[in-house]
Amino acid sequence: MIAYFVLFIYSCVFCIILGFLLMGGGGLFIYLTKGYLFFPASEVIRVFVFGCIAGSAITLATIVFNLMDKFNARKKPPSDPE
After folding, report:
1. Looking at residues 47-74, what average pLDDT do you find?
2. How many whole angstroms separate alpha carbon 16 and alpha carbon 55?
3. DSSP string spanning 36-78?
4. Which residue has the higher pLDDT, 40 or 76?
C-alpha cells in the first residue's frame, strides 16, 4: 500500500513539474513576441491543482490495472480438450 502512496507523490510531482515546464514555454513565447514576462499567480495555482488531479488519475489507473492483472492471474488455465 505504501508503494501506491509513493507512486501518487511521484506522479503528482511529475505532472506539476511538466505543467510548469509547459507554462514556462508559453511564458517564454509571450516574452519573445511581446517583450514582457507573463506568469500570473492564478495559473501557478492552476498548475498545482491540475497536476494533483492528473497524478491522482495516474495512480488510480495503476491500481485498477494491477487489480485486473491479479484477477486474471487467478483464473484457471483452460483444460485439455483431449
Report:
1. 92
2. 9
3. S----HHHHHHHHHHHHHHHHHHHHHHHHHHHHHHHHHTSPPP
4. 40
